[in-house]
Write a structure and sequence with these properties.
This is TIGR03086 family protein. By secondary structure, this protein is mainly alpha-helical. It has one domain. It has 4 helices and 2 strands, in the order αββααα. It has a two-stranded antiparallel ribbon with strand order 1-2. β1 and β2 form a beta hairpin. α2 packs across α3, α2 packs across α4 and α3 runs parallel beside α4. The longest helix has 21 residues. The two termini are about 15 Å apart.
């Protein structure tokens, strides 16, 4: 992930909610405000970045401030969606005490977070 984009994404999420936006996106799940696109891109980068970090044995403590700022959006977007094994999102998983924000985000979206240093 680009360091510059990750540095910008947290503030973008926070300020995007306050911006006037008359653009509505037609998504698979229905119309959504334009700022939702910013959230989706950041969520995708964090979650799939976490997947790559896990697969390659790298640290999963990705962009801590951005991941922390993203958690409420993830809960709002995905909270009521069905969660089934093999589906888009598995049921939320437990996280070890002291887990990073990116680990908590990944676990909320059904990833298994392992204990120990990364």
């Amino acid at each position: 992930m680009s360091g510059g984009l990750m540095q910008l994404s947290g503030p973008l999420i926070r300020i995007s909610h306050g911006l006037p936006c008359d653009v509505a996106l037609e998504e698979q799940y229905g119309p959504a405000p334009g700022w939702r696109l910013v959230e989706q891109v950041v969520i995708e980068m964090l979650v799939h970045g976490w997947d790559l970090a896990t697969a390659t044995g790298r640290s999963t403590d990705l962009a801590p401030d951005v991941a922390e700022a993203t958690l409420p959006s993830v809960r709002a977007i995905y909270g009521d969606l069905p969660r089934t094994p093999g589906g888009s999102f598995a049921p939320a998983q437990e996280v070890p005490e002291g887990a990073s924000a990116a680990d908590r985000l990944a676990a909320y979206l059904g990833r298994t977070v392992r204990r120990g240093p990364r």
